[in-house]
Amino acid sequence: xxxxxxxxxxxxxxxxxxxxxxxxxxxxxxxxxxxxxxxxxxxxxxxxxxxxxxxxxxxxxxxxxxxxxxxxxxxxxxxxxxxxxxxxxxxxxxxxxxxxxxxxxxxxxxxxxxxxxxxxxxxxxxxxxxxxxxxxxxxxxxxxxxxxxxxxxxxxxxxxxxxxxxxxxxxxxxxxxxxxxxxxxxxxxxxxxxxxxxxxxxxxxxxxxxxxxxxx
Length: 216
Prior knowledge:
By secondary structure, the protein is mainly alpha-helical. The protein has one domain. It contains 9 helices and no strands. α2 runs antiparallel to α9 and α5 packs antiparallel against α9.
C-alpha cells in the first residue's frame, strides 16, 4: 500500500510540472495576480478530479469511453468553450486594469475550487494518460494491479499534484517582486492567449471527425 502511495506522489508531482495544460496556466495566472490561495483552491479541485481518473484507470475505465464515445466528445466541446472563455477573460481583464489590488485571501476560493474540478473533469483524455501511466508502472514492476491499491495510488497522485502546484505558487510569491508590473501584465495576457489556443485546438480536434464525415 505504501509503495502505491509513493509511486502516486512521484508521478503526480512530476507529471504536473509542465506549464502547458489549462490548469497549470490558470494556477500560474492566479500566482501572477498575487492570489496564491485562489490558485491553491483551484489546484485542489483539479487534483481531486485528476485523482478520480487515476483511480478509474485501475479499473479499466478506458473501455467505457471506447464503448460510449459521446462522453468524451461532449466533454471536449464543453472544455473547448470553457477554455476559450477563460482565455478571453484573462486577456481582457489585464488589459483593462494595470495594477489590480488583490482581493481578500478567502474571496473566490470555492469558485476557483469548482473551476479546477470542472475543467479537469471535462478532460476525459486524462483517463488515457493515466491508463498509459499505470500500465507503464506495471511493466516496470513497480506495482501490481490490485483493487486494494487503486485508492492509495490515487491519493498519492492527489498529494503529488497539489504538492507541485503549492511549490509553483510559493516560487511565484517569493520571486514575484523581481518582475515588473508591465512584465506581469504581459505574462497574464500570454496565459490568456495560450488558453484560447488550447481551447480552439480541443474544439478543432473534436469537430474534425464530423467534418471529415460530412466531406466524405
